[in-house]
Design a protein that fits this description.
Elements lengths: L2 E2 H8 L2 E3 L5 E2 L1 E2 L9 E4 L6 H4 L6 E5 L11 E5 L2 H16 L5 E2 L4 E2 L4 E2 L4 E2 L4 E2 L4 E2 L4 E2 L4 E2 L4 E2 L4 E2 L4 E2 L4 E2 L4 E2 L4 E4 L4 E3 L5 E3 L5 E4 L4 E2 L4 E3 L5 E4 L4 E2 L4 E2 L4 E2 L4 E2 L4 E2 L4 E2 L4 E2 L4 E2 L4 E2 L4 E2 L4 E2 L9 E3 L4 E2 H12 L1 H18 L5
């Protein structure tokens, strides 16, 4: 990336304060940025770093009032974090892999349909009746089972495995090591104490614009579909069980586990290491804190929860504060009991 601050300000519709001729060659954090790097202030708690940074320019909120001199130029925007993201997107486009065609080391069944503009990497294994749409990129060692469909411009990174019949929409990204369509965890107990496997005959469906992090597992449905709806984003090491539905534009952080047939609404936010029991429904706009245990339906939209089992966020914070004071409270109670015993009249 090479552009002047003046050019960047025009791209972002930012108000520039400082030398617009400064050449920017890199994007960096406030602590590591040099004179030819652009950084941003996305959180007020990092404001002290603005006065220490060596960055040639800093994206700041429109109403930012410096308390000390700033060495670099300021670019005032409504949302610095979003503006910086837009710049990162531009850099990503410059670096984008534009490979097309089929590597001769790939193994592709004769019944598969591969668009000429798609890319198939070395040692990829493309099964019977697979359909790969325009601009899709299937990287090395990816395995696509019978009847899998991959939509336009979707990217499957190395060692992704997609089992038979699963569907991936357009503009999806699936990171390395993820498995789509493994059997759901379904076993029927028998009288002798053993378990009989319940056939898992459904599929996994990813709608457009979904991103799945590395080494995540999305299980196929027993019947019907396990669905990740349009625009949802899942972090690394997320487990989604059979027949789960994750709503549009929901985001789920790493190591979260969601048990079977649970439904998350739209724009749900889930912190890392959260756990959901099966067969519950979570309302639109719900926020779940990290390491929470979700064991019941959430019916009212837009609420925040925390703890295991979950409680409303503020209520749980009060409970945690009370818990931290238990030792002190116990000592006070013992002291009061001792004082009371000394006040009691002697027995007759």
């Amino acid at each position: 990336m090479k552009a002047t601050l003046e050019q960047i300000a025009a791209l972002l519709q930012a108000r520039l304060e400082g030398d617009g001729r400064v050449l920017i060659e890199d994007l960096a954090g406030l602590e590591t940025a040099g004179p030819h790097a652009l950084s941003f202030l996305g959180n007020p708690k990092y404001e002290p770093l603005v006065y220490e940074t060596r960055a040639g320019g800093v994206l700041v909120p429109s109403d930012f009032v410096p308390k000390k001199p700033v060495s670099g130029a300021l670019l005032r925007v409504e949302n610095p974090y979003l503006a910086f993201t837009m710049l990162l997107e531009e850099v990503a486009k410059m670096r984008q892999d534009r490979s097309t065609g089929i590597d001769p080391r790939a193994n592709i069944d004769s019944s598969a349909q591969v668009d000429p503009t798609a890319f198939i990497g070395p040692f990829a294994c493309i099964g019977k009746q697979v359909v790969i749409r325009a601009g899709a990129k299937i990287h090395a060692f990816v395995s696509l089972g019978k009847g899998v469909e991959v939509g336009e411009n979707s990217i499957l990174h190395p060692h992704v495995a997609v089992y038979e019949g699963c569907f991936i929409g357009s503009n999806c990204t699936i990171h390395a090591g993820t498995v789509l369509g493994a059997d759901g965890f379904g076993f029927a107990p028998q009288q002798d104490g053993s378990y009989r496997k319940i056939p898992q005959l459904g599929i996994v469906k990813l709608e457009d614009g979904v991103e799945i992090g590395a080494n995540s597992c999305i299980d196929r449905a027993t019947m019907g579909e396990t669905t990740i709806a349009r625009g949802a984003k899942l972090d690394n090491l997320v487990q989604v069980a059979h027949n789960v539905h994750i709503g549009e534009n929901s985001v789920i952080a790493a190591q979260t586990g969601i048990a079977g047939s649970t439904r998350l609404g739209r724009q749900v936010m889930v912190g890392g290491q959260a756990g959901f029991v099966g067969h519950i429904s979570i309302a639109d706009g719900t926020k779940i804190d990290a390491q929470s245990g979700v064991n019941k339906n959430i019916e009212e939209p837009g609420q925040a929860f925390r703890g295991s089992p979950i409680q409303p966020h503020r209520q749980q914070l009060r409970s945690e504060l009370m818990f931290r004071k238990l030792v002190e409270m116990e000592a006070r109670i013992r002291s009061l009991e001792q004082e009371l015993s000394q006040l009691r009249p002697p027995s007759v």
